[in-house]
Design goal:
By secondary structure, this protein is α/β, with parallel strands linked by helices. It has helices spanning about 20-30, 40, 50-60, 75-85, 125-130, 130-140, 165-185; strands at about 5-10, 35, 60-65, 100-110, 145, 150. Strands 1, 2, 3, 4, 5 and 6 form a 6-stranded parallel beta sheet that branches. Keywords: Oxidoreductase.
Length: about 190
């Protein structure tokens, strides 16, 4: 069965109400899944590039799991991408190490769905804002899978949502992600 590598880009997973639930559900339900929590591995931001590249080589499917921060990935995940996806590893004349591997983006979005549309509050739909990561897949020869995201995934006590609501949304999100991963595993 195909091995799934999940890179958790949450900067402080211990304080997450949603990404932590999603990862827990994945680890329980998906065979051959390995989660690398960047916040725990690299609290100082010093990434072990060789170890991360080896984890990518060992995987058949790559998932980037992250909260959507300022229309992109959190800083630690961006640093991971910058340092791990190097010339002649991920791209370039000899950079075919990831070619053909599925890349699946799984993200939690704090704002409501209606705010992410043309001329809405945020002016762009989520797929438009994910174009740089889609291009990363194309440049590295990976297969860009349809991303999975959920809106309203932030809980601010007494102000926005309830913990129970966002955790329920996280379980729903995890269910969709698990179904997609099982399909990808069967196809590979």
């Amino acid at each position: 069965m195909s091995k799934v590598l999940v890179i958790s880009g949450h900067p402080d997973l211990s304080h997450s109400y949603t990404n932590r639930v999603i990862l827990g559900e994945l680890e329980e339900a998906v065979d051959h899944v390995r989660v690398r929590r960047l916040d725990q591995r690299y609290p100082d931001g010093r990434i072990d590039v060789a170890a991360e590249q080896q984890a990518l080589l060992d995987a058949d499917i790559l998932v980037l799991q992250f909260p959507f921060y300022w229309y992109s990935v959190p800083a630690l995940l961006k640093k991971w991408i910058d340092e791990v996806m190097t010339f002649n590893f991920a791209y370039g004349p000899e950079g075919d190490k990831l070619k053909g591997k599925p890349l699946l983006l799984s993200l939690t979005v704090g704002g409501p769905q209606e705010s992410y549309r043309t001329l809405g509050y945020n002016h762009f739909a989520i797929p438009e804002l994910l174009k740089p990561l889609e291009q990363l897949a194309y440049l590295t020869g990976m297969v860009f899978e349809p991303p999975i995201w959920s809106h309203g995934m932030v809980y601010i006590p007494g102000i926005y949502n309830t913990q129970e609501l966002v955790e329920a949304r996280a379980r729903d999100h995890a269910g969709r992600l698990i179904a997609t991963l099982r399909t990808l595993q069967q196809e590979r």
